[in-house]
Write a structure and sequence with these properties.
The chain is α/β, with parallel strands linked by helices and 311 residues long. It contains nine helices and eight strands. The protein has two domains: 223 residues, Alpha-Beta Complex (Spore Coat Polysaccharide Biosynthesis Protein SpsA, Chain A); 69 residues. Strands 7-5-6-4-1-2-3-8 form an eight-stranded mixed β-sheet, sandwiched between helices.
């Protein structure tokens, strides 16, 4: 098989049939042997019924249904595991990504890239959403060091080999280009169309901002310090140790030379307490992320549960 199209869908009953129709025309013109994998991410409307109908009409449509809404990262991961083609394309189910741009991605992929990202250079979204996205992309580029303009665009093309051992959870699907760049893969980018949503409701809200920000912190840490964590933790330890020793010497000198009483000056205890709490919180956060990676990456466990697979 030449091409696998992976489409996470959550409550997109009005869009999946139209998207399939557009995809069939574009992929038919390419002349490749393809499969379309819809991942129903716990939809509560008739999305799954619509997908069953599409499968009955077109055997190249495969449907994966998750038991509940696990999020786009989990849905993409479920699709990645079942993609059979050498090239994998991801896109949204809301019709805002234009299937006609897929040949552009494939052409750029054939020029030597391992992954090609779509760049919605003219977005059809509200001003507030564009402003937040622009700030988030600027922050991501500064912290991760990769130069992709639009990490929120789901329209991407991958060589299947890039997706092996790729661990996705939370909002990590946004940072796939950064993760792959960190592993040494070549990341390209092409400008693509972006269309206004006409049917259905957007799944993006302000509650996703803090989750995405925390995931960005983890991606930045793993990119910079995963091979040398002692540099960051050792540096912090030295900083706290020197500060503590300096403060302790100051209090000792104040007591022995100037006769200043320490019984009513909890400055030393407060400094030690704050230092220990800060180190504990940082270490606990990093250890928790490492444990999650080991839990999901070194066993058969997954961060989602599949209810039905139709092939």
């Amino acid at each position: 098989m030449d091409l696998s199209i992976i489409i996470p869908a959550h409550n997109e009953e009005e869009n999946v049939a139209a998207l399939h129709q557009e995809l069939s025309k574009v992929l038919g013109s390419i002349g490749s042997d393809y499969e379309i994998i819809f991942v129903d991410d716990g939809s509560t409307d008739s999305t799954f019924s619509e997908l069953q109908t599409l499968h009955a009409q077109d055997p190249r449509v495969k449907v994966i249904r998750l038991k509940k809404n696990f999020g786009q990262s989990a849905a993409m991961s479920a699709g990645f595991e079942r993609a059979q083609a050498e090239v994998v394309v991801t896109m949204d189910a809301d019709l805002q990504n234009d299937p006609a741009d897929i040949p552009l991605l494939l052409a750029e992929l054939g020029s030597g890239c391992d992954v090609v990202c779509g760049w919605r250079h003219r977005r059809e979204d509200p001003l507030s959403k564009r402003a937040l996205s622009k700030f988030a992309n600027w922050l991501r580029r500064r912290w991760t060091g990769e130069s992709v303009h639009d990490s929120g665009c789901s329209l991407r093309a991958y060589k299947n080999g890039c997706l092996r051992d790729l661990e996705l959870y939370g909002e990590m699907h946004r940072y796939i280009p950064a993760l792959l760049s960190w592993k040494g893969y070549r990341v390209g980018e092409v400008a693509v169309q972006h269309r206004r949503r006409n049917k259905g409701k957007t799944k993006y809200n302000y509650q996703r901002l803090p989750k995405g920000f925390l995931d960005l912190l983890l991606v930045t840490f793993w990119r910079r310090y995963s091979l040398r964590p002692v540099h960051v933790f050792g540096g912090l330890g030295l900083l706290f140790a020197v500060s503590g020793v300096g403060l302790g010497l100051y209090l000792v000198v104040a007591r022995l030379v100037f006769g200043v009483g320490l019984a009513d000056r909890p400055l030393l205890l407060l400094a030690i307490l704050l230092a220990i709490m800060g180190i504990q919180f940082i270490v606990f956060g990093v250890l928790a992320d490492i444990m999650i990676r080991v839990y999901y990456g070194q066993s058969d466990r997954r961060n989602y549960t599949i209810e039905t697979v139709i092939e």
